[in-house]
Amino acid sequence: MALDLAILTAMRGRHRLVRAVLASIAISAGGIGFTALVPVGSALAQEQKPAGNTVRPAIGTPIQAALDLLKRRRGKDALAQVHEADAVADKTPYEAYLIERVRGQVEAAAGHASSAARAFEATAASSAISRGERLQFLAAAAGQYYMAKDYGKVAELTARYFKDGGSDKAMRTLHVQALYLSHDYARAAREMLADVQAEEAAGKIPTEAQLQLLTDSYQKQKDQKGYANALEKLLAYYPKRDYWLNAVYGVAGRAGISDRLARDLARLKLATGTMQTMNEYMEAAQLSLQAGYPAEAKKIIDQGYAAKLLGTGAEAERHQRLKDMAARNLAADSKTLGQDDAQLATSKDGSLLVSTGFNYVLNGSADKGLEMMERGVRMGGGKHADDARLHLGYAYYLAGRKQKAMQVLKSIHGSNGPSALARLWIIHLGQGS
């Protein structure tokens, strides 16, 4: 399940990223505005150029004709005029520059991405071009190479673009995307992580496309830690259900999430709306009953019925039996809860205080239960101290004390199972839940 969801999210993210980049960067004749860069009509003679740069009629006439033909969407005839101009011998650097500049526009309009890219790259390399135009044509060449799927050239030209002083963020994304599509996932992740961190340091929110690419780059490397961290950023800024599914089920498959945390994982699924199947509801309810929390089991079962995953189909009778068992256990628990309070008052067993206090919270006695749990955590919480703090944070959440819940959850450090769950809880609570 987790792998399928990861692949689904990665594919969706990659497609959205490509569309976003191609929409924001000028990669075609229309996009980069060549009608302004390459003059039409009488404007050719008026174009500003360095002193001494002139265009002979043998070249200027067919070049102007090519522009006029292109304007009338006669691309094949326009290209023939470009070839005529190119056939003139002893071209000056400026004449060669104009020919390549128009050739690129004509080839791009015709959908000949590779030819357009080469022409734009040659234009950008000309000594006759200004710095600003060089950056525009480097961007245009990179865009055309991208369309031609020559990702190595895209990475090369986008790197040159930034070295020469370019600053378009769409070009930066295109650069990293080219590294990704060249299967250089490690470098793509490093470059994109630097961009994300720079955005955050400037108080800005990284784009969803950036975070999707970062997440997918780590996934392709099978870098579990990097993938989890990137996915948490994606969740924090763009809390979509697909990302929550991927994060929650990804945590379920990670090393360090042992069977003892199955109840904690189910609680997170319920809170984030990512519990999906009848078996998940049944298993979660049964685990709560086995732990001695019938109030929690009843709540899970009720939610399963509300979601129409329990109480219907061939297993409906089985669901009803579990529901009846939870009701009986809750009635019995209500009668016995508090019988051991005197003994617990002097208990040195932190885990017993945490579990009993948690049961009080589940049964509506939040203040008493939280005080007991706090005392148990101060004693060390038993064998698994981080588990105890995770339960305390969840108990504060149930009691409606979100800020205190976040404070407790933030005290869980490391890379173990409880810390992974705590980080997701912090993201969830930070989104107003």
Distance between the termini: 26 Å
- Helix and strand sequence: HHHHHHHHHHHHHHHHHHHHHHHHH
Task: Summarize model confidence as the mean pLDDT.
Answer: 86
Backbone structural class: mainly alpha
Shape from CA axes?
elongated
Count of helical regions? 25
By CATH reckoning, the class of the largest domain would read Mainly Alpha
Task: Tell me which CATH architecture of the largest domain applies here.
Answer: Alpha Horseshoe
CATH fold-level label of the largest domain:
Serine Threonine Protein Phosphatase 5, Tetratricopeptide repeat
Number of folding domains? 2
Fraction of helical residues:
over 70%
Q: What's the number of extended β-strand segments?
A: 0
Task: Tell me the major beta sheet.
Answer: none
CA radius of gyration is: 32 Å
Q: Percent of residues in beta strands?
A: under 5%
- Uncertain runs: 1-13, 25-51
Describe this structure in words.
The chain folds into two domains: 26-167, Serine Threonine Protein Phosphatase 5, Tetratricopeptide repeat (Alpha Horseshoe); 262-430, Serine Threonine Protein Phosphatase 5, Tetratricopeptide repeat (Alpha Horseshoe), CATH 1.25.40. The chain contains 25 helices and no strands. It has helices at 2-24, 29-32, 34-37, 43-46, 57-71, 75-86, 93-109, 113-124, 131-147, 151-163, 169-181, 185-201, 208-221, 224-237, 241-252, 262-272, 278-290, 294-306, 316-336, 341-345, 350-362, 366-378, 385-398, 402-409, 417-430. Mean pLDDT is 86; it is low at 1-13 and 25-51.
